[in-house]
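User: Modeling request: complex.
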Amino acid sequence: MNKKIDFTLNGKAVSRDVPTHRLLLDLLRDEIGATGTKEGCGTGDCGACTVMMNGKPVNSCLILSGELAGADIVTIEGLKIGAELHAVQKAFVQDGGAQCGYCTPGMLMMSKALLDSNNNPSEEEIRYALSGNLCRCTGYAKIVQAVQDAAAMLRSKNP
Amino acid sequence: MKRTEAFDFYQPATLQEASQLLKDNGPGGRFLAGGTDLVIAMKEKGLLPKYIVDLKRVPGLSGIRENSDGSIAIGALTTLYTIETSALIKKKYPFLAQSAAEVGSIQIRNRATIGGNISNASPSADTSPALVALGVTATIASASGERKIPVEEFFKGPGQSVMNADEILTEITIPKTAANLVGEYIKFSPREMMDLAYVGVAAVYNLAADKKCTGVRIVLGAVAPTPIRAKRAEAVLEGQILSEALAEKAGQTAAEEAKPISDVRSSADYRRAMVGTMTKRALLNAATGPAKSWYDRRDRRY
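Assistant: Request completed. Predicted assembly structure:
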């Protein structure tokens, strides 16, 4: 069954006729062409598909397009502020917080979600927030470091 | 990963309408809350609903409210993350907040709802032991009215509950409890929140200044077809002064009461042994106050 859905994607209004059973992840990647969001496990274990929905991080692999009416979705493509990278992106680049890079969009979205509510997280808080994001390269130490550095960047901007 | 297949999709604006849809359309329909069990069942377990009724457009089904009689009502669509982070729940029932925090990742808990966690009736559901221990009542509604049932009597088996297909869990109510009530939920699972409980134990009791324990409730998850109360273990501690020896004895008794199975996660024997250990620790931890942090919550299981 198809349905006309109006929602916001990265600040822009989207109006599309979509099959209600289409997963948000597939809608983004296959129909809209926003391929930054990745699929890892497809069952909500790995976090590679993390996007923000109404300001909260969620697994886009478990959301049906039928649920999207009125939703505000932000993906990795919407993380950059104008021409400038978001602090989490800058810090991941600077610290080598990405190895193969597949988990990175999800890691960045979840890190942003953490820093939105806490700009001075402890290592424990960072590990807790990222416990649903798996890095198959096991590059966790540098990821944690990058989130700490991103937090410092945000604090120096908004002390 | 397999994709979901086409289905009819409804977004009713009232409970009556939602329940009527299930009545009118017949078998093969499923209610949708957060989707973290339903969509996974469709992708991983071959569930093919004919139609889905999304409850998220029905107003008034989420939120946490303290009533004038001291009870607390939690709407069925309240997310587990909201419960985990609620100042009221953390203050009054930290072990319930803790049980909600044991379910999957933050991404999952931003979608998963308390009503869904109960309705799905998984024997290993993390919130169920704490809810049964607190004597929580579930409100169930349909087009023909409303009924209330203790969560303790709600479960009938894995995936089975007392609810009919057209009934919707709308709210749970935590009755007023004594000011000296303490509790602990331990999820024993080596991968913590990212895997199901091998064993779940909720222990709740009123702790007097002299450490006398009354109103003892010990509820086990993942070791029987439904969450079960370990009533003989409760009796071991009831009216007694808490001690390590008594907690040990209650643990051993709870282990005898468990009816675990062997599966991919654990053998029945290991589960039974862990029921003993985790019950003992839950009873002792409850008396020391809530865990200070995630690491603390992890470490004090061992």
